[in-house]
Amino acid sequence: MTVAKRIDGKAKAAEFAASITRETATLLDEHGIRPGLAVVIIGEDPASQVYVRNKKRTAESCGFHSVQHKLAEDVSQTDVLQLIDNLNNDDAIHGILVQLPLPGHLDEQAITQAIEPSKDVDGFHFVNIGKLTAGHTSDAFVPCTPAGCMLMIEDELGNDLSGKSAVVIGRSNIVGKPMAALLLQVNATVTVTHSRTKDLPQVVAAADIIIAAVGRPEMVKADWVKPGAIIIDVGINRVEKTINGETKMGLTGDVDFDDVSTVAGAVTPVPGGVGPMTITMLMANTLRSARLAAGLEG
Ligand code: GUN
Question: How far is the CA of 33 from the centre of ligand 1 (A)?
Answer without folding.
Answer: 26
